[in-house]
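Protocol step 4 of 6: structure prediction from sequence.
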Amino acid sequence: MVRFGLFGTGHWAGETHGAGLAAHPRTTLAGVWGRDPAKAAALAQRYGVPAFDDVDALIEACDAVAIALPPDVQAEIATRAATAGRHLLLDKPLALTLADADRVVAAAGASGAASVIFFTQRYHPNVTTFLAATAADGGWHHCDATFFASIYQPGNPYGTSVWRREHGALWDVGPHALSIILPVLGRVTRVAAMDGPRGMTHLLLTHDGGATSSVSLTLDAPGDAVTRDVVFYGDSGIETAPLGKGTVADAYGTAIDQLLEEIDSGIRDHRLDVRFGREVVAVLAAAETARAESRTVDVPA
């Protein structure tokens, strides 16, 4: 059994990470840490494990960490865990700055820690199959992506998230869009960005080889305008990326399976590891600068 330390106490930590790890036949929860000790104690009691009041103590007690915390907090804990040789099951985005993302990548590389980032759609088999086939076809010139969410309705568990309110759709749903676009069009080299109504961010991206993509994002869409569309245009015509078939729990179970495969094999080449997470952060950080300064920004390799 692989012992996981769970870091985080919110809805996503309890209903996705905690539930998935507790149900998996090859994993067990070693304990819970959270910024609110009372919430950590309650979640730990739910799963019958200890609550920890010290980050490093829980890292010491586990083989791997599962983190469901704001990205800046995640990056700090992931760096400490990877430095200690613990494997990483992380959320998107990896970090809120490229410097923090680089520190996680360096720590994982130095210790040989396996890593997987939970870009939810990418763990559904029908999405994986579509992306592999579409990338193999080649000849794609452009992609239009629209990710309109609506999290500020009463009862939504993410509507009170401080980091989402501060950093918006660019950093919350932007990583999901990039996780679908990048496997087909390749690395982003240049970014332009501008704001729109209702917290919208619009991106225009140039990719290696000259293909382009446009991405529109918001967390505050009207209820009837919620959508997720990703459409590729090219020599093969038009292809629309499917929505994942299955539940979030199914996808999370697949993410656990794939991390365990990395641990067992000793090979560190997962397509959604911290290096890919760092690539996504580089695009988001460049977009933040482009939006703030009304100019086109080159994305560092």
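Step 5 (inspection) to follow. The radius of gyration is 19 Å.
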